[in-house]
Amino acid sequence: MTDPANFGELAEHARAWPFEEARKVVKRIKGRDPDQPVVFQTGYGPSGLPHIGTFGEVCRTAMVRHSFEVLTRGEVPTRLICFSDDMDGLRKVPGNVPNPDMLAAFVEVRDETTGAILQNPSPLTSVPDPFGTASSFADHNNDRLRAFLDGFGFAYEFASSTETYRSGRFDDTLKLVLERHDEILDIVRPLLGPERRATYCAFLPIVEEWRGEKRRQVLHYVKLLEARPDDGVAIFVELNPKSGDTVGKPFEHKTTGGHCKLQWRPDWALRWAALGIDYEMSGKDLIDSVKYGGRICKAIGANPPEGFNYELFLDEIGQKISKSKGNGITIDQWLRYASPESLSLYMYLSPRKAKRLHFDIIPKAVDEYLTFLGKYQQLEDDKRLENPVWHIHAGNPPASEVPISFVMLLNLVSASNSVDKSVLWGFIRRYAPDTAPESHKKLDQLVGYAINYYDDFVRPTKVFRPPDDRERAALEALDTALADLAADTDGADIQTLVYEIGKSAGFEPLRAWFSALYEVLLGQKQGPRFGSFVALYGIEETRAMIRAALEGQLGK
Description:
- Helix content is 45%, strand content 13%.
- By secondary structure, the chain is an alpha/beta fold.
- The chain has 2 domains: 4-310, 3-Layer(aba) Sandwich (Rossmann fold), CATH 3.40.50.620; 406-550, Arc Repressor Mutant, subunit A (Orthogonal Bundle), CATH 1.10.10.
- A hairpin with a 4-residue loop joins strand 8 and strand 9 (233-239).
């Protein structure tokens, strides 16, 4: 095996997608001062609870960052900024938060007939927290995101839009936007409909009082009448969103120091330019926005970052997951049923392919991770760089210590009718005598995940059916055959026996026999490799389960 220190040379030819992305960044910085940090960025909109799509962007970007560090032998410093758009206005009340009524006074309200703005939205950092745990709605959601990222061990810098605007970090670039506002409008307007095109301004004034209401508000519909880039001041007038008519008198307003923010496309370009972003990925739905954001970035004198567009996650019925709808899986929900590593694997695999992100994919994700981890140590170094666990664990995967699949554990919980870890460990130790909760902590965690998943998803859907005549005869034959086996018979030998009984009983195709075993004995449509399951659960226990099924006692 090659020494890990030499992975950099191997990485130059690695085909794994994080290396392909990292090589784009290496090419980008050619000739640049090697002491200048390469800056990776991810964006987060805290208008809803953090979801796994948000984590996926950070996870994938961290993989590209690590691959870049390997390619450059650690000689080029890097940073990863996780940027929260927490200065955005709350445009609607999310459907998945407690106390939604308390947010109604902070969202945009229009007259349905005239289109006039009756109530401007407040910035997310000025909206109260409906959960009652933080100083604002944005702070609550930001805290949730950071808690998970910290728990996972990501090395990142959190950046708040509100704090960055207020700090003056964006001021010089904002003055450039003000100076080149007409050019930026020409870039953005082709993306807009006729009505919005007439009312679009790159700047969104933030006011502390408007029309006598003392509340921080974001004015989304204004026209820029006069720009004074040298001192960062502009003259605006409010517009009716529907008609485009002016409302009220023109007013002078600062565009720097957090007194304005930008519409989201110019805002994205502003960040790229002001923060010197070298790499940022985004969803497929933002392809045009990346393209036009790059043009805006160039208009204000900066080079847009490298990046790629990943496919979107879909819910159980194939719709795009949404923070506001809450139709995906939250980070906390995934971690109730599976490890963070299995989640990272799900993010790693096929990032340009649309994938369902629903609870039923979790068991497969867990077992795929265990399979990749189990194979890692037997691989040559060049093949290790293609194994997902190398990227999940930043080049240092742990030794595999889990001899039982997650699906097998789920079926053990189901067949034993026990959610007691000590009872389940009794079965496990008989199957794998060298294991114990104290020495195999990952396996012990997996047992806990299996109990949770069984309780929430398997138990409520279990439906045992009686066997038909052919199935009954085959089950009786299986019971008799198992009686002749030694208690420590290998799972492969048991599987061969099960195959032979199914063939002798005339099951065609043979999978119909295994479907019968799952439906009659486990009350499920699918199940594990049956021979391995019997070896884990126990021959005598399996025989007792067969007899109970033949007597119609299962599920009662």
